[in-house]
C-alpha cells in the first residue's frame, strides 16, 4: 500500500492536463457509456491489466478482482453523482496504469482480498471520473453502458492472459505488464 501511495503522489506531480477526463465526449446515453472506455488508452490499459493480473495470481483472483473493479467503479460513479469531491483523481488513474503494470510484470501474487482492495481502490477513481462527467438525466443508462464495456475489457484481459500463458508462457504475461508500465509513463509524459 505504501508503494501505491508513493506512486500516486509522484504521478500527481507529473500528470499532464491532457489526461483530464471531465467534459470529454458525450455522457448522455447507454451507447455513450459503452463507447467511453474505448475512447481512452488509460481505460483500456487498466482494465486489460486487471484481467492479466488476475491470471497471474490465478484461482479466484481471475473473477474476484474484475468483479471488485466493476463494483467499486460503480460506487465511485455514485459518489461523484451525489457531489462527493475526491482529491488526486487524475494522479490515481495515471498511477493505476503503472502500478497494475508493475504487479503483472513482477508476477505479484497477492492474496485475493488484497488484490480486490487494490483493484477496487483504482476502480473507485475511474468510476468517480465517469460520475463527474455524467449528465444528470441519463445517469443509469450511461453507468450501465460503461459497466458493461468495462466488464468486456476485463474479460478481454483475462482471455489474453490465459491465451498468452498457455501459448507462450508466463514470460508473455510479464512482458505485457512491462509494456503497460511503459504505456502509462508515455501517457503521463504526454
Layout of strands and helices, then pairs:
Blueprint: H1 2-14, H2 30-35, H3 41-57, H4 61-81, H5 89-105, H6 112-133, H7 139-167, H8 170-189
Q: Please tell me how large the radius of gyration is.
A: 15 Å
Relative helix content: over 70%
User: Averaging pLDDT over every residue, what do you get?
Assistant: 85
Distance linking N and C termini: 27 Å
Spatial shape: globular
> Based on the structure, what is the oligomeric state of the protein chains?
single chain
| Uncertain residue ranges | 4-20
Question: Would you kindly provide a written description of the structure presented here, covering whatever features stand out?
Answer:
- It is a single chain.
- By secondary structure, the chain is mostly helical.
- The chain has one domain (41-189).
- It is 76% helix and 0% strand.
- The protein has 8 helices and no strands.
- The chain has helices at residues 2-14, 30-35, 41-57, 61-81, 89-105, 112-133, 139-167, 170-189.
- Helix 3 runs antiparallel to helix 4 and helix 7 packs across helix 8.
- The model is unreliable at 4-20 (pLDDT under 50).
Short description:
By secondary structure, the chain is mainly α. It has 8 helices and no strands. It has helices at residues 2-14, 30-35, 41-57, 61-81, 89-105, 112-133, 139-167, 170-189.
Task: Name the descriptors.
190 residues, mainly alpha, 8 helices, globular
